């Protein structure tokens, strides 16, 4: 928390210095490169640099006041609730707006040119231990809400149209806006060109009064620009996958760190790359927030840090997998859509599990697949605290069916020393699991069984099917579930971990993985009611479900008609 606060304090201090030192005439040409002469003078006559804004993340109001005081600022009034920034955060992070407590403060700054300007402070309260930490981390890194604002003096429609046209002529693109009836003011947002030198790209033009007619034209222009830009960004998605895969494959992240800026020449030398080219890759990755650029080189961001091989929860294997075999198979997506055949099988001549397992030459690939599954395991973080596991009796056995390399079973056994484990897997993967769970010190409490779904052993107390059913079509799922139901005694529990397609069409990672499953595995993601029907067909009942990170869910299932199908405890 100290780091978080001091991070906010240093950004706030930088913002205060910026507001104190800049004036309208010097700031405008930095934001609108090339603006000069009579046009600059006209703009300076018509509008004033009024504030710079930033978003901070205090644990409470007392800490916020202390942060302000530490920067020589005094709030003129208690925070007013923010509507616009709160909504933008809710949309960006797929949160309910009501969960986000965002206030606005506008402490004044006495400036070097004698003017009085303001720092606009948006404060999202992040109580200690709250899961808003991830929102704060992303926002600190990307600075979406940071902007500078100009207030237009004595606006009239002609002046306003002229100002908007001048901004556009010097590369600032319309980027939304709105009318605030409480203040009777109209806000026009712009994004300055990439050549802007001010350290800010987002520019606000605040116009006292109701100028919704001119705002409508500004918003139309924004909308018109959007489809082509949006499509270009989407069409180049493959470049993003390959840029990340190349970064991971060349182990560039491993040669960088989050604390230190590394020069491009040094990096090229360290990773054995052709000297000028890593800079182009790194600039692209800067745009994606994977690294950040400064005058002396590049620094790894928290996002980029996940591509280091030794990072906790490293996602490097996923980058290699999605940029490697699954990248090749995705080229056949059209074939899958047209014919119903699985593109991976068309490209590699066999089912992906067989392909990865068949050939000793592909052993590396199989290991990569197992490691890439483990790389998505942040989904498992809350699972050991599931009531079925916390309420399990002393000595109870958890059977992880197709448990992969044992990532989940290992977490369960570590969290619950009184439980035993049994991992059922295909032969090559069971060996990987044996090694990993052995290294974690679980050999004594864990049994390993090489086999097929038909070999689900009886006698377990808690059965787990994690990210297995989505690999298969409905008929095969029913078969697997029947094997489970047959093995389960009356009071046994089954935990099914899957992403669920949202019933209301809202955005979810499940929708993307549905496509991946169709193209590569011949499986699919499903809605909760679809799973409930499959369970029912196999003599099982869905009794409860709860969310997991990365849009995962844990479905609690019991045998239909078992003494008590209700969720416990
Ligand atoms: C998507 S992975 C999930 C692994 C693990 N449960 C997890 O969540 O990380 C699916 C697993 O199913 C295993 N599998 C595929 N076919 C199988 C079969 N016929 N019998 C047993 N396991 C199988 C694969 O080896 C693979 O590890």
Would you write up a description of this structure?
The protein is of the alpha/beta class. The protein contains 24 helices and 18 strands. Strands 1, 2, 3, 4, 5, 6, 7, 8 and 9 form a 9-stranded mixed β-sheet that branches. Strands 14-13-12-15-16-18-17 form a 7-stranded mixed β-sheet, sandwiched between helices. Strands 10-11 form a two-stranded antiparallel ribbon. It is elongated. Mean pLDDT is 90; it is low at 1-5. S-adenosylmethionine (SAM) binds next to helix 20.
Largest sheet: 9 strands, mixed
Low-confidence sequence ranges: 1-5
Structural class: alpha/beta
Number of helices: 24
Radius of gyration: 28 Å
Feature tags:
569 residues; seven-stranded mixed beta sheet; 24 helices; 18 strands; elongated; disordered N terminus; binds S-adenosylmethionine
Question: Could you provide a short overview of the structure?
Answer:
With 569 residues, this protein is an alpha/beta fold. It is 44% helix and 19% strand.
Topology, pairings included?
Layout: H1 2-21, H2 24-31, H3 37-46, E1 47-56, H4 61-70, E2 80-81, H5 84-93, E3 102-105, E4 108-110, E5 116-124, H6 133-142, E6 147-152, H7 157-169, E7 173-180, E8 185-191, E9 202-208, H8 212-235, H9 237-249, H10 264-271, H11 277-287, E10 291-294, E11 297-300, H12 302-305, H13 316-323, H14 325-330, H15 333-339, H16 343-348, H17 352-358, H18 363-375, H19 387-390, E12 397-401, H20 407-415, E13 420-425, H21 427-439, E14 446-450, E15 462-466, H22 474-487, E16 493-499, H23 509-520, H24 528-537, E17 540-548, E18 552-559
Parallel strand pairs: 1-5, 6-9, 12-13, 12-15, 13-14, 15-16
Antiparallel strand pairs: 1-6, 2-3, 3-5, 4-5, 7-8, 8-9, 10-11, 16-18, 17-18
Bound molecules: S-adenosylmethionine.
């Amino acid at each position: 928390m100290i780091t978080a606060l001091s991070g906010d304090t240093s950004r706030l201090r930088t913002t205060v210095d910026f507001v104190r030192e800049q004036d309208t005439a010097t700031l405008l040409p930095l934001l609108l490169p090339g603006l000069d002469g009579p046009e600059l003078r006209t703009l300076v006559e018509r509008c004033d640099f009024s504030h710079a804004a930033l978003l901070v993340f205090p644990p409470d109001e007392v800490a916020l006041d202390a942060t302000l005081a530490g920067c020589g600022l005094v709030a003129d009034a208690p925070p007013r609730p923010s509507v616009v920034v709160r909504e933008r955060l809710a949309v960006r992070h797929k949160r309910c707006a009501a969960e986000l407590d965002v206030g606005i403060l506008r402490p004044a700054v006495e400036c070097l040119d004698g003017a009085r300007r303001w720092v606009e402070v948006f404060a999202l309260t992040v109580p200690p231990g709250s899961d808003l930490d991830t929102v704060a981390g992303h926002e600190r890194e990307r600075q979406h809400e940071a902007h500078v604002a100009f207030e237009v003096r004595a606006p009239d429609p002609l002046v306003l149209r002229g100002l908007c046209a001048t901004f556009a002529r010097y590369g600032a693109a319309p980027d939304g806006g709105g009318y605030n009836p409480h203040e009777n003011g109209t806000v026009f947002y712009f994004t300055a060109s990439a050549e802007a030198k001010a350290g800010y790209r987002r520019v606000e033009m605040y116009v006292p009064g109701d100028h919704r007619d001119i705002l409508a034209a500004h918003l139309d222009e924004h909308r018109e620009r959007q489809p082509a830009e949006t499509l270009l960004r989407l069409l180049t998605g493959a470049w993003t996958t390959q840029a990340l895969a190349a970064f991971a494959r060349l182990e560039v992240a491993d040669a960088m760190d989050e604390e230190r800026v590394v020069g491009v020449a040094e990096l090229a030398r360290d990773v054995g790359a052709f000297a000028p080219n890593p800079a182009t890759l790194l600039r692209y990755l800067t745009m994606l927030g994977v690294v950040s650029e400064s005058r002396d080189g590049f620094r790894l961001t928290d996002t980029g840090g996940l591509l280091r091989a030794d990072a906790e929860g490293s996602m490097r294997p996923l980058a290699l997998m999605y940029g490697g075999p699954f990248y090749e198979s995705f080229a056949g997506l059209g074939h899958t859509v047209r014919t119903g055949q699985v593109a991976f099988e068309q490209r590699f001549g066999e089912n992906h599990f067989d392909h990865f397992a068949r050939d000793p030459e592909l052993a590396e690939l199989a290991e990569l697949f197992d490691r890439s599954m483990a790389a998505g395991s942040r989904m498992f973080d809350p699972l050991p605290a599931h009531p079925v596991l916390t309420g399990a009796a002393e000595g109870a056995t958890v059977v992880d069916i197709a448990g992969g390399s044992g990532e989940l079973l290992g977490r369960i056994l570590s969290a619950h020393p009184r439980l035993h484990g049994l991992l059922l897997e295909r032969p090559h993967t069971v060996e990987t699991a044996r090694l990993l769970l052995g290294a974690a010190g679980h050999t004594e409490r864990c049994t390993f069984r090489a086999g097929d779904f038909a070999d689900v052993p009886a006698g377990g107390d808690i059965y787990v099917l994690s990210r297995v059913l989505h690999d298969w079509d409905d008929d095969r799922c029913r078969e697997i579930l029947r094997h489970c139901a047959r093995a389960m005694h009356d009071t046994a529990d089954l935990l099914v971990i899957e992403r669920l397609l949202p019933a209301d069409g809202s955005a979810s990672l499940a929708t993307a993985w549905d496509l991946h499953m169709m193209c590569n595995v011949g499986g699919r993601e499903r809605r909760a009611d679809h799973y409930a029907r499959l369970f029912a067909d196999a003599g099982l009942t869905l009794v409860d479900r709860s969310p997991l990170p990365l849009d995962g869910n844990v479905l609690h299932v019991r045998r239909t008609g078992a003494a008590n199908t209700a969720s416990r405890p």
